[in-house]
């Protein structure tokens, strides 16, 4: 049996960690969507059956929506489903395209780093505040920006290293 | 042109041209302005969070989820069967079934790609088997799919309602007549094609088969009644209607049709989040971009310049339509709405165009952009399902695009066309 090099073991270890992070992200997005739907359902039922609208349902639903948006942004980098033009990439031969995809992933990593930087400053400025209706710590909401940025950065860097950038369809990436 | 405008446009256009995803390109263009103009970096994250804090936008993932649940729960197939017993025996009948079933599905999902995928996957193979040219079958499914943004509920109208700060309910109503007009035009195209190509006629459904088809489809047909009845009966907001539509689809899929399982639901939720995130990520990232555009008064200055150069309203509207059509050939329609929305609204306002009427014009443009070559979203779905290339489907879709352009002309220059139902 061939012995694996220390570098290969390290890369496999990193891949496993990234797979686990992506699994957790997907699970959190499913949970956020389910909670969002439950909040809307409870809001409607409470209004028509019990004659009162809960004060918390809309705020929690919007909090979950924020995560489906920002977490979904990060998942889109991991799975390569974000909308883009691929007119410039399509004529490239295989190897050149793979390098171009790495370059694009590197740009996405820069975006992620900017979001971490900006997000941490924003969290710092608003630390200690609470939400309007149910008074949850505002770091829960504002912390989503640096977390999403870190995930974007992680996934993009892994794609650059692995050279696993996916090829889009002719003209544009897969549609919503 | 100010430094802010130059940096925003150059960075965004440069990154988008080299295939960087639109959401990333918009975000980095915003960051570039923050660096150049020495603005506090926290602005970027603050605006992204702010862009995800709209209750109205929650309707996007929920309507996407409703479409997923309806398709997985077998309700899409029931709709197709019900439409089939009505018109399949007519000349071009099976193609007409695609149009009619798509119009009904559009009243459930509100999404053009979801409608194209749900109906196209059933109807493109069925039409091909029945003797239709495969490229024509794909073109019909693609062009019918774009009824999604026009027939309420509509994700595109939800986004425009948030951008333009207009009643989403009224915007929904403004899309009905343009949507139905496109559907009627498509039916004519189907008839003419089948007659010219001598496509064999299908057998007429018996009375018994018709009754059975409608009995089977009653749960699917109830969904648009609940959604639209709830919104216009003043019972739900559009966001709540989307949630109720999801719950309805889950209950029917689990308990009546029995094609959904609790174990299968997480996968459907994830699919809905994925497709929703493609749209909402662009909306959230564009918020900071939009604020910079507003602060620099780029939209107002451009509107004033245009008003000084063009004195006729009809010319300004024609120019806007042409610009939108050209932009849609190289850009995502949602990104166009979000990025150029403030500018378009400023121009429309300068020329005294009713904001709801203008919303109908914009969303009709969005619908056309999703079907028109070279980068219509629905076009790619049609290509994927049929296995055909861009050229083959594009050649067949031009009559349908022409129908849409005629409806766009009517929507633009006959305001009552959009405003009759929207009051």
Description:
- The complex is a heterodimer of chains A (176) and B (423).
- Chain A is an all-alpha fold.
- Chain A is 70% helix and 0% strand.
- In chain A, helix 2 runs parallel beside helix 5.
- Chain A starts with 5 loop residues before the first helix and ends in a 14-residue tail after the last helix.
- Mean pLDDT of chain A is 88; it is low at 165-176.
- With 423 residues, chain B is an all-alpha fold.
- The model of chain B has no long low-confidence stretch (mean pLDDT 90).
- Chains A and B meet through helix 1, helix 2, helix 3 and helix 5 of A and helix 1, helix 2, helix 3, helix 4 and helix 14 of B.
Break the fold down into its secondary structure elements and pairings.
The complex is a heterodimer of chains A (176) and B (423).
Chain A: H1 6-49, H2 57-79, H3 94-126, H4 139-142, H5 144-162
Chain B: H1 3-17, H2 22-36, H3 42-51, H4 59-72, H5 75-87, H6 93-109, H7 112-129, H8 134-145, H9 155-164, H10 168-174, H11 176-197, H12 207-216, H13 218-232, H14 238-256, H15 265-295, H16 298-309, H17 313-328, H18 333-350, H19 355-371, H20 377-386, H21 390-413, H22 415-422
Helix pairs in contact in B: 1-2, 2-15, 3-15, 4-14, 4-15, 5-6, 5-12, 6-7, 6-8, 6-11, 6-13, 7-8, 7-20, 8-20, 8-21, 9-18, 9-19, 10-22, 11-21, 13-14, 15-18, 16-18, 17-18, 17-19, 18-19, 19-21, 19-22, 21-22
């Amino acid at each position: 049996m061939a012995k694996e090099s220390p570098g290969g073991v390290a890369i496999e270890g990193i891949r496993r960690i990234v797979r686990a992070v992506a699994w957790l992200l997907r699970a959190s997005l499913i949970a956020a969507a389910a909670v969002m739907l439950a909040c809307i359902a409870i809001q409607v039922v409470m209004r028509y059956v019990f004659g009162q609208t809960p004060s918390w349902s809309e705020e929690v639903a919007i909090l979950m929506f924020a995560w489906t948006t920002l977490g979904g942004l990060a998942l889109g980098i991991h799975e390569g489903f974000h909308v883009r033009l691929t007119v410039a990439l399509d004529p490239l031969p295989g190897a050149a395209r793979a390098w171009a995809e790495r370059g694009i992933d590197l740009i996405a990593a820069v975006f992620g780093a900017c979001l971490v930087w900006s997000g941490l400053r924003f969290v710092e400025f608003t630390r200690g505040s609470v939400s309007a209706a149910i008074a949850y710590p505002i770091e829960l909401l504002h912390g989503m920006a640096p977390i999403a940025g870190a995930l974007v950065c992680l996934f993009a860097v892994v794609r650059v290293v692995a050279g696993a950038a996916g090829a889009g369809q002719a003209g544009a990436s897969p549609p919503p | 042109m100010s430094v802010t405008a130059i940096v925003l446009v150059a960075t965004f256009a440069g990154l988008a041209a080299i295939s960087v995803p639109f959401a990333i390109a918009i975000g980095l263009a915003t960051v570039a302005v923050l660096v150049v103009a020495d603005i506090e970096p926290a602005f970027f994250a603050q605006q992204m969070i702010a862009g995800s804090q709209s209750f109205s936008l929650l309707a996007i993932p929920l309507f996407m989820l409703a479409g997923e649940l309806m398709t997985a729960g077998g309700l899409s197939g029931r709709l197709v069967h019900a439409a089939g017993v009505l018109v399949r025996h007519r000349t071009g009948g099976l193609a007409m079934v695609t149009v009619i079933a798509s119009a009904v599905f559009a009243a459930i999902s509100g999404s053009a790609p979801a409608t194209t995928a749900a109906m196209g996957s059933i109807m493109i193979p069925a039409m091909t088997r029945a003797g239709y040219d495969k490229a024509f079958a794909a073109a019909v499914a693609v062009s019918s799919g774009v009824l999604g943004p026009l027939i309420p509920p509509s994700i595109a109208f939800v986004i425009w309602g948030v951008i333009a700060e207009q009643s989403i309910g009224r915007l929904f109503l403004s899309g009905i007549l343009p949507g139905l007009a496109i559907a009627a035009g498509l039916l004519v195209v189907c008839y003419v094609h089948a007659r010219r190509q001598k496509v064999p006629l299908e057998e007429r459904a018996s009375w018994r088969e018709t009754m059975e088809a409608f009995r089977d489809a009653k749960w699917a047909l109830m969904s648009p009644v609940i959604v639209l009845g709830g919104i216009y009966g003043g019972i739900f907001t559009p966001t709540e209607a989307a949630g109720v539509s999801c719950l309805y689809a889950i209950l029917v899929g689990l308990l009546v049709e029995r094609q959904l399982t609790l174990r299968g639901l997480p996968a459907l939720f994830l699919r809905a989040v994925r497709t929703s995130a493609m749209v909402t990520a662009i909306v959230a990232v564009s918020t900071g971009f939009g604020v910079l555009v507003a602060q620099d008064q780029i939209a107002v200055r451009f509107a004033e310049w245009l008003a000084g150069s063009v004195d006729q309203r009809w010319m300004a509207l024609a120019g806007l339509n042409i610009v939108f059509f050209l932009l849609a050939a190289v850009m995502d329609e949602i990104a166009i709405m979000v990025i150029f929305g403030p500018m378009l609204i400023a121009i429309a306002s300068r020329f005294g165009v009713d904001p709801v009427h203008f919303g109908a014009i914009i969303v009709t443009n969005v619908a056309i952009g999703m079907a028109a070559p070279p980068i219509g979203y629905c076009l790619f779905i049609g290509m994927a399902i049929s296995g055909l290339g861009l050229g083959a489907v594009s050649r067949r879709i031009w009559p349908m695009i022409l129908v849409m352009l005629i409806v766009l002309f009517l929507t633009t220059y006959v305001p009552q066309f959009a405003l009759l139902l929207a009051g």
